[in-house]
Amino acid sequence: MAAPKKGRRPAGAQGRPGRALAVILIAMVALTAGMFISKQTTPRLGIDLAGGTTITLKAKSEPGKPDAVNETNMNTAVGIIERRVNGLGVSEAEVQTQGRDHIIVNIPKGTNEKQAREQVGTTAQLYFRPVLAYAPGTPTMPEPTPSASSSGKPKAESGTKGGATPTPKASASSQGRALPEALTATGAPTPGASGKADDKKAGDKKADGKKTAPTPTPSGAASGDLQKQFAALDCAKPDQRATAGKGAKPTDTTIACGQNGKVWEKYLLGPVEVDGKDISDAKGVLDPQRAMWLVQLKFTDKGGDKFAATTGKLASQQSPQNQFAIVLDGDVVSAPSVSSAITGGSAEITGGFTQQTAQDLGNMLSYGALPLSFQEDSVTTVTAALGGEQLKAGLIAGAIGLALVIIYLVAYYRGLASVAIVSLMVSAILTYTIMALLGKAIGFALNLPAVCGAIVAIGITADSFIVYFERIRDEIREGRTLRPAVERAWPRARRTILVSDFVSFLAAAVLFIVTVGKVQGFAFTLGLTTLLDIVVVFLFTKPIMTLLARTKFFADGHPWSGLDPKRLGAKPPLRSSRRVSAPVDAKEV
Question: Which of 21, 80, 85, 23 lies closest to 55, judged by CA?
Fold first, then answer.
């Protein structure tokens, strides 16, 4: 008797189904536990189901700048719009690009639609204003400690002229910066890095942990009403941050808020000295010689002249009136100190930057020079009631589809239907838990198209079971018993299932890449459920069938098992003829 070919499992081999079942059981328990530990027990709902406002903006190039609408500028614009929406106190808002020249802003329910449209539909305004007065905020969380640079060396602190300590400032980055910032000429020594007495005084003042009190406003610099507004301003409150300095003209003295790590601080600012459009380039870079991240600025010829004149005036002032506030959309994103006039049309901001905070500030400064404007293409508002109705309708449609699939399986496959139903339940548990966890992990929101994708997935998953069941029934029709039929049917069914799921996943991937917005929700759900279909069939359906083939109900072909040889048209004489044919052939040979 010839031995089976090396590397191939004999047709009757049963494998070890217990291991596969243990793997998928552990995965289900782990995902469910993670869902409860993270307190994310329900999938995050999109705007069309939870209710809210969707604003579509179209980017336009300014005259003479035909190539301004590009990926870099659009991504920078997305960051600015996100800051605006966050300034309204909105949580879970979504801002993303759509195609080449559109930005989609999804704002959840409970937001003032008119105010939101005003905030996201206008062009960003970037100004350089001198600081007249400053007041620190109250920490809401422990302040971050100075971090080391990427090289592992501690970053140098920046002092100011005469030993005065500039007020630490931060960009809107979540990491913040605990060290003070300084505005110097490109390549000039960083103030505070010399180790002289001035730096010691600044370090001693910082070490005592006390904030400097607001510097009195110079006489005549601001009206009495504005000084009262400055005194009453509480930047820790989102509603006051959103209205601080609203409506101020470039020639006006105004108030503004800025974020330093976890602390919101307030400023009294003078008229605009340099416009953001005077910046020709800005970027965060790593200086390998000083082992620190910094932000480099380049000005136009006209802007360089204005910048040199203003920094010359600020350098003669005491802190905080030697600081130059960089104001974007009414928020102070940086307020570096100035120790000398900066000429030549270029400068750099140094301080406690990380790579992320330096690049973020560079992008913000670049936006003031972007030759982009936006026009509102459409605004769609979905009430919470309408979203609830849509979700209910989607769930009803899914339930009807599932019920029809189950009815078909029971009517046609009888006992085998139990395997398909339990497999569908396992797939549903995996899909639900993963969607719930992805809502917090990557911000995945379940919208109406995504629900449609989940409904379509019911049919795709059931189709895989049907392919396997039909292969088993074909083997039984050929006269084999159930145990070898289950194993012999698997290789052929496996190939068909993998090819079918690969085509579905490829279609979902292409759809996800070439589309935007809500259609991506459909593609994402379809792709996810297709992958889970493979996991369930390989780790649950096949092992379960291997175990059931050992039971009397299925192995003996009970009429209600769905594997009755008589019902399937198997012919017992075919088995006998095969057993007798061997000796006959041998005799003839």
Answer: 85
Instruction: Determine contact, residues 291/355, Cβ cutoff 8 Å.
Output: no
Q: Which residue has the tokens 């610099």?
A: 221
Q: How far is it, in rounded angstroms, from Cα 419 to Cα 244?
A: 64
The phi and psi torsions of 392 (rounded to 5 degrees) equal: -60, -45
What number of helices (H) and strands (E) belong to the chain?
A: 18, 15
Distance CA 489, CA 487 (A): 5
User: Can you give the CATH number for the domain in which 93 is found?
Assistant: 3.30.70.3400
Q: Is residue 367 part of a domain?
A: no
List, in sequence order, the alpha helices (H) in 38-70: 47-50
Smallest CA-to-CA distance from 422 within 525, 531, 532, 544 is with: 544
**Does residue 213 lie within any of the structural domains?**
yes
Domain count, the chain: 3
Question: Do 66 and 132 share a domain, yes or no?
Answer: no
Q: Phi and psi at residue 10, in whole multiples of 5°?
A: -55, 150
Range of the domain at 100: 48-119+376-381
Q: Are residues 32 and 89 in the same domain?
A: no
Judge if 423 and 323 occupy the same domain: no
Rounded CA separation 391/396 (Å):
9
Lay out the sheet containing 52-61: strands in order across: 94-98, 102-108, 52-61, 372-382
Query: In terms of domains, do 415 and 473 share one?
Result: yes
CB 299 within 8 A of CB 257: no
Which DSSP string do the residues of 33-61 spell out, in sequence order?
Answer: HHHHHTT--SPPB-HHHH-EEEEEEEEEE
DSSP state of 375: E
User: Is 320 part of a structural domain of the chain?
Assistant: yes
388: its two tokens: 């609830």
- Alpha-carbon 514 to chain mean position: 19
For the beta carbon of residue 70, count every other beta carbon within 10 angstroms.
Answer: 13
Of 315, 349, 381, the residue at which a domain comes to its end is 381
Q: Do 163 and 185 belong to one domain? A: yes
Chain centroid offset of residue 111 CA: 21
Co-location of 191 and 78 in the same domain: no
Q: How far are the Cα atoms of 322, 350, 411 from residue 207, in angstroms, in the given order?
A: 22, 20, 79
Give the span between the Cα atoms of 130 and 492, in whole angstroms.
Answer: 76
0.85 exceeded by pTM: no
How would you write the pLDDT of the chain (589 residues) with one tens digit per residue?
Answer: 445 454 454 443 456 888 889 999 999 999 999 989 988 888 887 777 777 788 888 888 766 677 778 887 888 788 777 766 765 555 556 788 888 888 888 777 656 666 666 667 666 678 889 998 888 765 544 433 333 333 333 333 333 333 333 333 333 333 333 446 787 777 666 655 443 334 433 334 333 433 444 444 443 456 778 888 888 888 888 778 877 877 788 888 889 888 877 788 889 998 999 888 788 888 888 988 888 898 888 888 888 899 899 888 888 888 888 888 888 777 888 888 888 888 888 888 888 788 888 887 887 777 665 567 788 888 877 776 666 777 788 788 888 888 888 898 888 888 888 999 999 999 999 999 998 898 878 777 787 888 888 888 888 888 898 899 999 988 888 888 888 899 999 998 999 999 999 999 999 999 888 876 677 788 888 999 999 999 999 999 999 999 998 898 988 888 888 888 888 777 654 444 444 444 444 444 3
Six-digit token pair at 57?
Answer: 């903006």
DSSP 209: T
